[in-house]
Amino acid sequence: MKIRITVVDQKGNCPCHRAHQVGDVFDYDQDRGKLCPLAMHVLFPMIDILRYGGKLKSDVFCCPDVDTINVFKIEKLDE
């Protein structure tokens, strides 16, 4: 199973410190090093839930950077 992570919105006042832009798409297994560590800290537990068959109340989560609040959408893709 693949996990796709997409930047769907930015709500902060500053550009992203990792240069993420709305529309950026990441494959969790192939692009892990390209994704911001702050975002990964938030997203990892959600990804783990999806990988082990759990369900999420929402598929949208934001990073904890108050200067740049990136909003990420997590999708489980069946191969």
Mind sketching the topology for me?
Layout: E1 2-10, E2 25-27, H1 37-51, E3 60-62, E4 70-77
Antiparallel strand pairs: 1-2, 1-4, 3-4
Mean pLDDT: 92
* Number of H- or I-type helical stretches: 1
Fraction of residues in helix? 10-25%
Q: What is the subunit organization of this protein?
A: single chain
Question: In terms of per-residue confidence, which ranges show pLDDT below 50 for 5 or more consecutive residues?
Answer: none
**Spatial ordering of strands, largest sheet:** 2-1-4-3
Radius of gyration: 12 Å
Whole-Å distance between the termini? Answer: 6 Å
* H and E order: EEHEE
Q: What structural class do the secondary elements suggest? A: alpha+beta
Q: How would you sum up the global shape?
A: globular
Task: Note the beta-strand portion.
Answer: 25-35%
Main beta sheet: 4 strands, antiparallel
The count of domains is 1
The total count of strands amounts to 4
Polypeptide structure, described:
This protein is an alpha+beta fold. The protein has one domain (2-77). The chain is built from 1 helix and 4 strands, in the order ββαββ. It has a 4-stranded antiparallel β-sheet with strand order 2-1-4-3, with helices on one face. Strand 3 and strand 4 (70-77) form a beta hairpin. It is globular.
